[in-house]
Input
Amino acid sequence: MRGRALAATLIFAAFAAVPPLAYWANDPYLIVIASRIVAFAIAALALDLILGYGGMVSFGHAAFVGIGAYSVAILGQAGITDLMLQLLAAIVAASAFALVTGAISLRTRGVYFIMITLAFAQMAYFFFVSLSAYGGDDGMTLSSRSTLFGSDMLRDDGIFFYVSLGLLGALFLIATRIVGSRFGRVLRGSRENALRMNAIGFSPFRYQLVAYVISGAMASVAGVVLANQTKFVSPAFMNWHVSGELIVMVVLGGVGNLIGAVFGAVVALVLQEFLGAFTDHWQLWFGLILVGVTLASRDGVGGLVRRLTGGKR
Amino acid sequence: MSLLVVDKLCKRYGALKVTDDLALSVEPGELHAIIGPNGAGKSTLIAQLSGEARCDSGSIRFDGEEISGLPMHRRVARGLSRSFQITSILPGFTVLENVATAVQAREGSSFSFLGRVADESALNDQAVTALGRVGLTDRAGTIAGSLSHGEKRQLELAIALATKPRLLLLDEPLAGTSGGEAERLVEVMRSLKGEVTTVLIEHDMDAVFRLADRVSVLVYGRIIATGSPDVVRADPQVRAAYLGEEA
Amino acid sequence: MTNLFLLQLLNGVQLGILLFLIAAGLTLVFGIMDFVNLAHGVIYMVGAYLLVSFARMTGGYWTGLALTLPTVLILGLALELLVFRHLYDRSHLDQVLATFGLVMVVTEAVQIIWGAAPLTAAMPEALSGSIPLIGPLRYPVFRLAIIAAGLLTGLGLWYIITRTRIGMRLRAGATHRGIVSALGVDIGKLFSLIFAFGAMLAGFAGALVAPILSVDPGMGESVLILAFVVIVIGGIGSIKGAFAGALLVGIVDTLGRSFGPIVLRAVLEPAAAGQAGRVLAPMLVYILMAMVLAVRPAGLFGAKA
Output
């Protein structure tokens, strides 16, 4: 536990050092990448909450990211540019979507759950593709970033980065509290042994559903950040590849330890940038690495990471 | 009034009647053992009583109320708790947390998101008490999955006790235990007598006849005899059907 | 109106048949091996690309098809040997990761080999016309041929599964996993066979659509997810379910897109109906899936979730 707190402190300190570093190196692109990593770290963190602690392999978390992104675009077009209001709208919309799709998906388990969450995300994808008022398939460019307390300070990449990092930090703390709470214990117990939880008087479904909703709401925050970072939204945000990459991030960092998900987002995106610098076909190499690492480690990528870092779980 | 009254209970799997017009009543405070040859339907009976399996027809009245339509977790809330024949614990949790989780199920809401549950003494104290009852206090900090088989059986019992049951359904608690382990578990069950009403399914006849106030004999899904251990042991029908002797 | 309906119904059946060819192999893999294979869609795509190349190389659709099928079969065997075989006893999560990685590899490799621009294959001469159905209504022969080919394949599968020894083992395995090994069947061989055969069916589907759809690197993905919907609706492991689910999804999707706005116009203003129709139509099959699941969590023909 202490090791994890240390790892979290180090990672957040490293994040915080990016803008000065970028200024010093005269490379503003670093801040852009770091903001993007923060956005995906939020989504991966959200996914780890249900995947790592609830045993729910959701292959549809990109949908929540997309819902968050479109909340920014739709409200922005209606003249509501306040970040707080946009966050609120994103969270409400994502929670509603999670509640409905989760209630159906959680009636099933295993392979079914994976496929159904994927299918619902695809449904959301098509929904936004058909919204021609918001650019349909092509998406739409945002005229500016959201405003914060009536000021347009988020136009500054540095300030925007720190606000995003603050959101990630807050959500990380909340998630840490949740997994250690009464609720978190029921969630973890249901993953360990659902029959046992039933036999002591819990009905896991309700807890899993609430966790799914919380996770969806958190992932929508990632969408709000991502839309602002790129000043662009498109259905591509909820492409199933994005859902897959989120799973990759969670597993890379070690399933079920929250800070690992943040770390996994860093590793995955830095690796993509790195490969992208050498070749246009980075997906080929990324995929090969993924297949290779999964096959090479007997107990999965998570096991390999665990062995390398010497951590438990 | 009897605590548990089962009447006309039936369940079939295809053509096989595993529970056939079964009647049973359990009095408050007694330890009621159910014995029977393999395949007699003992585990299916526990599954139906606990709510893990649905019965096809018949009634299960617990404390005067019909519970046969309730799911398992609602029956637990009413005080009907069970252990499993095949050990069922939370292997990644510590021993203490296994039991504290059961306490938590009974104590208040679990929709509490921010407090640190590991520090809740209200839950931990009761869990320690339950562990004390089964003699597992010194293993409280151990990860449950790494316990020995006998210790897991003890833990299973502590978890069931922590739900504060009014009726405890024990499904072969001695299954797979060695002599010493079994002896310890029998002692625990003996110490619970009079305090918690118990339905015990067990193959170990020695333990059954030492512990039980009453014994029911289940053969082919029916209770063919009920009575004190001595009476049942002497019953010619039981000897013929179960103990394999000619009457 | 009736004519248009008939036309769209045929289109729906044709889409359903394609989905069936893809879902058939996938549902067996899910059911028997409890294995999540995300890479099934890219095999369909590779089938289409191979057909394009082989048809150009040999100068004819039929020779192209004759070369495509064994090539995809070999590809399926190779993938099973190199990747899938090592994942059977892993967690679903590992299976998702490895097959997702494979999707990235194959998609990128296809773009390297064939480029990102859409390709098309020439239609076989003999099937390139259209025939009259009723009155002035005509329907392309090739699409009818796809339906016929799919139905024949379905019939063949039905025969194998209900009438042969290996089919009996498959059925036992799909509904009661673990039994197959208890029967003393060589599991490894059976699994390779199912995989390769499923891959060939998916490749076959790709080869069938190559002359009528644009062959591009994204074609595998939408189909894969629709195949998932089919399997969820039909019930994992059930060929019968895959067939029923595929036709249902194909018909609902096609009719929904063409008639959704028309039906909505009865209750809404034309403009609103058009908008609502465009939004709702692509979501219809997912709503259908949700409804089936709400009533039968294990799907129409599934044993148990």
About this structure: The mean pLDDT of chain C is 86. The longest helix of chain C spans residues 2-33. DSSP finds twelve helices and two strands in chain C.
